[in-house]
Amino acid sequence: MTTRLKSLTCVGLILVLWLLAACAPVPGAAPTTSESGEGAAVRELHVLNWQGYGSDEPWAIEQFEQAHNARVIHDYFNSEDELLTKLRTSPGKYDVVLPNIAYIPPAIQDGLLQPIDVSRLAVWSKLPERFQTLPEIVHEGEVYGVPWAWGATSLVYNTELYPEGFDSLNVLWDPAYAGQVGFEDNYEDAVIFAALALGLENPSQPEDLDAVRAKLEALMPNVRAFWQSEDEFNRLFSSGEISLGVYWSGSTSRAQTVFGLPIAFVIPQEGAIGWIDAWSIPADAPNPELAYAWIDFMSSPEFYVEWDRVAGAPVPANPESLAQMPEDSFTNTVFGDPSVVEKLAFITYTPPEVREQWIELWQEVKAGAK
Amino acid sequence: MRKAPSRWSLVALLGPAYLWLALFGFLPLLIMLYFSFLSDVPLGNRTVHLTLENYARFFSRGFYSRLTLDSLVMGAYTTLGCLLLGYPLAYALARYVQGRWQTALFLLIIVPFWSNSLIRLYSWIIVLGKGGIVSALLSRLGIPLEDGLLFTYPAIIIGLVHAYLPYMVLTIYVALDRIDTSLLEAAASLGARPWRTFLRVIWPLSLPGVLAGVILVFIPAIGSFVEPRLLGGPAGTMLGTIIEDQFVQVFNWPLGAALSFILLLIVILIMALSARLLGLATWDRGQEAGHG
Question: Where, by residue number, does the polypeptide cross the bilayer (chain B) (predicted)?
């Protein structure tokens, strides 16, 4: 090979490398599923949900597809903001979505959701009144979300390393556990956890953001890693990188039943974060009738109890499902005591200006963590 | 003498590439530039207006400029690491290894990069983590590092150096390979010892390759966010990860775009400045040579 040719080969290789690097996938980018229906009679139901959050259980999809001569197609999001983004950028694509109720008011405001005719839903009359009248889902007398599941984000720890367990959120700040904590990279939960640990009034909307900032800054030396998804937390926990932290209740249940991890979930004395997820129908859903059938199916004890048995599920909003869950299920052991609900700071609708402050506060804390 | 191509064949040669760049590179970039001056993302029923607030935010909050500095330092460490590892490698490949061995060694550098970058990063997570190979080796050597290197600043640099080393090796190799061996013979016959030959002949002649490598590594390394996020733990917050947050997590494209363009501007300034300094340096050498 002549020198010139060799040089050309090298330049070519560099270009190929650049292209490969440019084509590398971005973590956090959700995989999208799209298929075209086979028969003309088969209707399609486009579901937008978290991955691995019940609705994509294969046995359930099969059941629904056969009962309604339909094809269920999933798309996923990794954060509630991404859910809103997908609704805004793809109008007319999704038939049914599962937002956290705190994100329903901004979605209504942007005209992204349609009112739900609750008389067409079998499950609605079974829901407790406090779920039917949540201020986030009712707007000008119309209902925009059907509460489906609720749960908590709270303290978790490795039961093999700490058999005696913990009862205080402030254990995360204890210097004895420096470099052991896996914390959620989420501005909302970070702010509320700090407010809870400080014992602030109204922790879902804390007034004293300076105290929150200082508390989070004090947490950073104890943090080993941040996590954003269930996979990420489970990897950190099972490889021994972290031994305690905060985690979602449904995910903890799955970590126990599916992955057999030695993990315990507690609602500490300071309380924990509560959240409610509700099914909504996008404003321009192509197949709203199918969406109604889907919401009833997802809320039925037939689906929910089985989901909890095979995979582990959060607390069902439908009391009939709860009644059929075994005594020793994760849901009943953690949330069976009615006083637990009193200790939860439920995520509520936060106005954009306040969210901006929270986002910047959390980024500033993370930036200073070196 | 080479015949100049006709105007039409020139258009045919250059046209497709520049059309492609204009449509798929420049246009989206212009849209992002426009977004960076908006008060909100113009989707749904939102009303938006033009504003400088996104840029003002960068200067009103101290942590943005601190993060920018962190990102530049991270890029500098990465470039330095690539240079220190890459130059000797390229030198050996260009001067001492020939034929089949050269091809084999080149393949060893390139082949890992045919794999997905996430796969490479996850392998690093295993290697650097608690009880991984690195911490085991270090504790053998008497350096206690029970927690491993994972989720520390050095882990980010290790990941980035691994990601960008081939660019450095290949560009330096090209420059070294072009050096006429008779120049080295001339230096030797004039009594120059090997290190003097290196400093006065080889190093200056390889500088264009070094520079190309530095640019190819430094620019993408500053804006990187995957390696810091996955390997850095609490040390991994950089301007790149904050920009990613704005796009993926919190849906503030205007602020994310503004931060990106500020970073772009800083990179352009650094490049312009260093080009000027280098221009002066080569001019000096030219003067020196002229007088000598």
Answer: 12-37, 72-93, 105-129, 149-176, 197-222, 255-278
